[in-house]
Design goal:
The chain is an alpha/beta fold. It has helices spanning about 1-20, 30-40, 60-80, 90-95, 135-145, 160-170, 185-195, 210-215, 230-235, 245-255, 260-275, 280-295; strands at about 25, 45-50, 80-85, 105, 120-125, 150-155, 175-180, 195-200, 220-225, 240.
Length: about 300
């Protein structure tokens, strides 16, 4: 992190000598916010936070680092002209850690034309980094004693993969560990557009782009009622408690056994992403913030 900050600071000072800028839009409070803070007298900055840069969002990974830089973290927050978060969940988490109300929520955007529903197949999709808080183990627990005529595809890689593969042994359903896929690849696109159901049982999401991809693809969605997941899907998904295999199983059986419900949730998800997450609307909100800062 230190080497990045040094080189980035040199680069920023160099381009500030060559060009005139009205505003610096920084992504991540740490580490990039450090560079913006050091140059705050030369150019005002706003920051979009994404989750890993906020104490408490991912304590298993960054707890020590956040404690180490907390005083500087607070200075960066307080010197920013505006903090932007993609969800109310992340906004509330920042407020718990900093004495500020200078935060505005602007969702991530999505081009709904990039993914669109195709003829659906009996496929259940899970996508994400294979770590414990994503909750894929609870989905596997949910289906271990039921018969489902669906293929399960788990996309992603990570340190929890072996444990998940061990847990999947003995489950009757066909389960494919697909591995990591580029989100621009044809296979990634195929799995979203052809899958009938997406299950996203994560307990800690600052937003959840996977949910937008699933909504755009017309998947019926099962996700948790915690963190930002419920904010993203609104009423266009079935919500379950985190770490709760029984609720995942009940929601899954509802969708599998009720075609009308499956089709309705698919249509509502597609409509929600088109109405609420277009880049045109997101861009207007950012322009409004930039205008206020420049005035």
């Amino acid at each position: 992190m230190l080497s990045y900050c040094i080189s980035a600071n040199r680069f920023l000072q160099k381009i500030l000598l060559k060009n005139i800028y009205d505003i610096n839009h920084t992504h991540f409070i740490i580490p990039t916010g450090i560079v913006s803070y050091l140059n705050r007298k030369n150019i005002p900055y706003v920051i979009t936070s994404h989750g890993s840069d906020v104490p408490g969002h991912n304590p298993d990974k960054f707890s020590f680092e956040h404690k180490l830089v907390k005083p500087l973290w607070n200075r960066i927050i307080n010197s920013s002209r505006k903090i932007i978060t993609p969800s109310e969940y992340l906004k509330d988490l920042i407020i718990k850690n900093a004495n500020t109300d200078n935060i505005e929520v602007i969702s991530n955007g999505f081009n709904s034309f990039e993914l669109s529903p195709k003829k659906k197949e009996k496929k259940i999709l899970l996508v994400g980094r294979l770590v414990e808080f994503k909750g894929f183990q609870y989905f596997l627990e949910a289906i271990k004693d039921i018969k489902i005529d669906y293929e399960v595809n788990i996309v992603g890689d990570g340190p929890y993969k072996e444990a998940l593969m061990e847990k999947a042994r003995g489950i009757e359903a066909k389960i494919n560990f697909v591995g990591w896929l580029d989100n621009k690849s044809s296979k990634y696109k195929y799995l979203f557009e052809r899958s009938s159901i997406l299950v996203h049982p994560s307990s800690a999401e600052s937003f959840g782009m996977v949910l937008l991809e699933a909504m755009s693809s017309g998947c019926a969605i099962i996700t948790t009622n915690s963190s930002a997941c419920a904010e993203v899907v609104g009423d266009a998904a079935l919500l379950v408690k985190p770490e709760n295999p029984a609720e995942i199983r009940d929601a899954l059986l509802k969708l599998i056994n009720d075609e009308k419900l499956l089709n309705r949730m698919s249509a509502e998800a597609r409509e929600r992403v088109k109405q609420n997450f277009s880049w045109e609307g997101i861009a207007r909100q950012y322009v409004s913030i930039y205008t206020d800062v420049i005035k």
